[in-house]
Write a structure and sequence with these properties.
Shape: elongated
Number of strands: 13
Number of domains: 2
Radius of gyration: 22 Å
CATH topology of the largest domain: Rossmann fold
Largest sheet: 7 strands, parallel
Oligomer: single chain
Number of helices: 15
Helix content: 40-55%
CATH architecture of the largest domain: 3-Layer(aba) Sandwich
Length: 368
């Protein structure tokens, strides 16, 4: 019978994608993988490489309303009981958590069941759920250097990067080359639902302010919300801009690898993929995030020279046009940013994290 390893993650791509990458690697090493998540993970279905997916009751702590807090506490308590029963039945060697409040019940249940635990923190600042769990884990595996941790927690920290999916790794290693004089700038613009709405407003404004010749030198791929695509497409057609618009791109890693410049939000996964691919970016963090994580993620890559960070409150169409014109006129700067981004990439992150899992579980890694 295969040794069982349990993973838990919130039901968003930012949490599930690194968990998926680890699941793939551990499966290759001969282990049986199961996942605990919330109902949002259902949309991934059989795509997640696990023998079984357990949907655990969970909720997010919001506000100070006593009734809402009580309902949240009840859900988290029920989820913990669910997870504890699963732990007692499945007897995994280790549990790895990837953040989000849906990880709280499984991680707490693992402590009650005597199962060793590992936390992976993808952002440049530790999320609130992970902060509550960090004291009792064996290892904190991080994407960035988490400077805000105190001494005891810092002793547990191992910077290994963010595990990347196979489809991202397949695009890595392609050398970056800035556009030549007769070659258009391949511009990729994407974000979550809020990011897509903001960029659908700002980018047409910016491109309107460029000259006709400058617009002819842009080849655009942009994510838009479905309700915005028709209006944005009509604007670009009137401006004579070659554009591919969609509400979702199945081949986003390939499009990132093929871009001269990326304009996007700065979630941990996006920043990790940009670094691994070595692509320059203009990052616009999601404003109002509780832990300010996207700003800190963007700042980390910007400080390394691999990106330009612009806060949304400081960005309008005219400023965006100025930035685009600058990049179009400075291929050498794009080259420098691409090289700096690549230096921050962790292509072996999943291998490192899998090694940590085996060490904490007391498993001997097979020799190559």
């Amino acid at each position: 019978m295969k040794t069982k390893i349990m993973l838990c993650a919130g039901g968003t791509g930012g949490h599930l994608f690194p968990a998926e990458a680890l699941a793939d690697e551990l499966t290759k090493r001969g282990y049986a993988i199961e996942l605990m998540s919330d109902e949002r993970a259902d949309k991934y279905g059989s795509a997640f490489p696990a023998d079984q997916i357990h949907i655990i009751k969970s909720d997010t702590l919001r506000g100070r309303n006593p009734l809402k807090l009580l309902k949240t506490a009840v859900k988290l308590g029920l989820g913990t009981l669910q997870a504890w029963k699963i732990m007692r039945t499945k007897k995994p060697k280790v549990l790895v958590g990837f953040g989000g409040y849906p990880t709280f019940p499984p991680m707490f249940a693992a402590r009650l069941a005597g199962v060793p635990t590992i936390l992976h923190e993808a952002n440049a600042v530790m999320g609130r759920a992970n902060k509550m769990l960090a004291q009792n884990v064996k290892v904190i595996a991080s994407n960035f250097e988490l400077k805000q941790l105190d001494g005891k927690l810092r002793d547990k920290m191992v910077v290994c990067g963010n595990p990347l999916r196979t489809k991202v790794l397949a695009q890595c290693g392609q050398a970056y080359r800035a556009p030549g004089k007769s070659e258009p700038l391949r511009l990729l613009v994407f974000g979550g639902s809020q990011g897509a709405r903001v960029f659908s407003k700002l980018l047409p404004q910016a491109l309107t302010l460029l000259s006709a010749e400058e617009r002819r030198n842009i080849k655009l791929v942009q994510q838009c919300r479905p309700e915005d695509i028709e209006a944005v497409q009509a604007c670009y057609a009137e401006l004579g801009i070659e554009a591919e618009l969609a509400s979702f791109f199945q081949d986003l890693p390939a499009k990132m690898a093929g871009a001269h410049l990326v304009v996007s939000r700065s979630g941990a996964m996006t920043v990790s993929e940009l670094a691994a691919l070595g692509r320059p970016a203009m990052l616009v963090p999601l404003p109002g995030a509780l832990d300010n994580d996207q700003k800190l993620n963007a700042q980390a890559l910007a400080d390394a020279g691999g990106a330009l960070m612009v806060e949304q409150k400081n960005l309008d169409g005219a400023q965006l046009a100025t930035h685009l014109r600058r990049f179009m006129q400075s291929p050498a700067e794009l080259e420098r940013m691409a090289a700096a981004a690549l230096e921050q990439g962790h292509l072996d992150a999943v291998d490192q994290l899998a090694n940590i899992v085996e060490d904490v579980a007391g498993l001997r890694r097979p020799k190559n």
